[in-house]
Amino acid sequence: MGRRWHNTTFRWLSVYAVIFALSVMVLIGFIGWSATTRMEFDADAVLHWQLFYFGSIDDPELPATIFRRTEGQHLNTNYFGLFAADGTHLAGDIRALPPDLPLDRQGYTLNDSLIVANQAKSPIVRAMGVRRQSGEQIVVARDLTHVLHIRETMINALVGGGLFCLLVSIVSGLLLNLRQMRRVRDIRNVTLRIAEGDLNRRLPIGGRDELDMLAHLVNHMLEEIERLMTEVKSACDGIAHDLRTPAAHIRTLLANVAERMHVIQDDGVAQMLDRARVEADMLLDRFGAMLRISEIGALKRRGGFSSVDLTTLVHELSELYEPLAEDRGISWAVTVEQVPAVHGDRALLFEAFSNLLDNAIKFAPDNGAVRIELTDHPQGALLVISDNGPGIPERERDAVLQRFYRADQTRHLAGSGLGLSIVSAVMRLHDFALRVGTNGTGTTPGTTMTVECWPHVLESCAC
Amino acid sequence: MTTRVLTVEDDPLAANEIVAELEKCGFEVDWVDNGPDGLARAMSGEYDVIMLDRMLPGLDGLTILTTLRTVGVQAPVLMLSALGDVDERIRGLRAGGDDYLTKPFNSDELTARLEVLLRRRRETPARNETTLNAGPLLVDLISRKVARDGVEVSLLPTEYRILEFMMRHAGQTITRTMLFEAVWGYHFDPGTNLIDVHMGRLRKKIDPPGAKATIQTVRGSGYILT
Question: Nearest Cα to A79, choosing from A19, A126, A42?
Answer without folding.
Answer: A126
